[in-house]
Design goal:
The chain is mostly helical. The protein has helices at about 15-30, 35-45, 50-55, 60-90, 95-125, 140-170, 175-205, 210-235, 240-260, 265-295, 310-340, 350-360, 365-390, 395-430. The longest helix has about 35 residues, at about 395-430. The chain is about 80% helix and about 0% strand. The protein has three domains: about 1-80; about 95-110 and about 350-385 and about 395-435; about 125-350, no CATH class.
Length: about 425
């Protein structure tokens, strides 16, 4: 019969009477709950106050128990720290799992950037994309860019709220409430987008900052791109990224069809392309959620979203974050357009050299965004199991492990970022061969 290996407290050939007693108490009760438990155990071994004084040099059994208790607690802590070090080394050595996650989520990150890449490729091949064209003059570029920026800023808060609610209910496999939350957010977002467009139109009639035709064109792009952004946000939160790419590619081909076959001109062709993209996304969203709800029979159960006050309290931070993030992101561009000599003809005017530089700079984000996708999933993959394994007395080891993890990922991110910048720079320089 195999017995469990004895846990020796003091590794010495000859033990003092105190060390022998400590070992005996540990063998009997292990990690003691209190000094009283140790004192009771010592007394059960037949040791009295007189024995504590003559054999161990303590005034009473309780005084002896206090020292034994401290000795045992120190041993337990030291043992736990050693085991914690082993666990941390084991986690750090799990390289194969990290490689599997890397290939999976780095690929997903690259897929996330593919819509942006597809638009750059389309511009190179066709000279136009969903809302860009090489031959736009500065006035046209100004209105379309302002419509695009407005779409990002106004829908930014709703996009964050959609991401929060959809991912929450999707994590619970509750497609019914996820679908209801999508409709609730969209019912707020679309009227707001239309209302802001109408307000800007009226203000420009009263105070004509721009020609009314320019404003009308810009607002059309604003409404269409806002709708596309909202539907794409639902697909992204629902982990349907491939549909986003397919819809954008189809929309881009629709622009080419409108320009080359129908000869509709750039505006109508791009509006057709954005409309096709949004239509594909909306149709897929409806089919996807209706199928999931019915296949899981979730429509049979009475479920409802929290009331308006609770929903507001749970999501308003996400809305403010999304709105503030995109406002901050584009404020630099708006200021850069309007600053510097000579003064622009209108209050906000497109700055072509600045925008070209910004667009080329976006190329360097392709691999860094993909790497961020991997880092986020790797962190999420490790944090929960680590929390479950870690006791409160191993908190320092836990913090040290994730501090090292963060530092390693930061170094990796800087390396990939610098490499991306270098590749982008020389890639753009290489395009000079096509100048003529």
């Amino acid at each position: 019969m195999q017995t469990e290996e004895r846990d020796i407290i003091t590794q010495k050939a000859e033990l003092s009477t105190f060390e022998e007693l400590t070992q005996q108490v540990y063998d009997l009760i292990g990690n003691p709950l209190s000094v009283w438990a140790v004192a009771a155990t010592i007394e059960s071994l037949g040791i009295r106050d007189i024995d504590a004084k003559t054999d161990f040099g303590f005034e009473s059994v309780f005084d002896l128990a206090e020292d034994v208790f401290k000795k045992l607690k120190k041993h337990v802590r030291d043992k736990a720290e050693k085991e914690g070090e082993k666990e941390v080394k084991l986690e750090l050595g799990d390289v194969s799992e990290s490689f599997k996650l890397f290939f999976k989520h780095f690929g997903m990150g690259v897929l996330f950037t593919m819509p942006m890449i597809s638009q750059i490729v389309a511009i190179i091949i066709f000279e136009y994309a969903l809302w860009a064209w090489f031959r736009f003059n500065v006035a046209q570029a100004t209105m379309i860019a302002m419509g695009t920026i407005g779409a990002f800023i106004i829908t930014g808060g709703f996009i964050q709220v959609l991401g929060r609610l959809v991912s929450k209910y999707m994590g619970e496999s509750n497609y019914f409430l996820s679908w209801k939350s999508i409709k609730a957010v969209i019912y707020f977002a679309i009227p707001l987008v239309l209302g802001i467009a109408a307000l800007i139109f009226v203000i420009n009639v009263v105070l004509p900052f721009y020609p009314q035709r320019m404003i009308t064109i810009g607002l059309t792009y604003f409404i269409l791109i806002s709708s596309m952004m909202l539907s794409a946000a639902v697909l992204y939160a629902s982990s349907q990224k491939m549909v986003i790419l397919v819809s954008i590619l189809t929309g881009t081909l629709s622009v080419a069809f409108g320009m080359e076959v129908l000869d509709w001109g750039i505006y109508l062709s791009q509006w057709l392309g954005i409309g096709v993209t949004t239509g594909i996304q909306i149709i897929y969203i409806v089919i996807f959620y209706q199928y999931k709800i019915r296949s899981n029979r979730q429509q049979l159960f009475k479920q409802s979203l929290p009331n308006l006050e609770v929903s507001y309290y749970n999501t308003y931070r996400y809305f403010l974050y999304g709105f503030a993030y995109f406002t901050f992101l584009f404020m630099d561009r708006i200021l850069a357009w309007s600053a510097g000599p000579p003064p622009p003809p209108y209050i906000i005017w497109f700055n072509t050299p600045y925008e070209l530089g910004m667009d080329w700079a976006l190329l360097s984000f392709i691999f860094t965004i993909a790497l961020l996708e991997f880092i986020i999933h790797l962190f999420s993959h490790r944090i929960i199991p680590a929390q479950k394994k870690t006791n409160i007395d191993k908190l320092k080891k836990f913090n040290l492990y994730f501090s090292n993890f963060y530092s390693l990922q930061l170094v990796l991110l800087f390396f990939v970022g610098i490499l991306s910048i270098v590749l982008t720079y020389y890639g753009v320089v290489a395009l000079r061969v096509f100048e003529d």
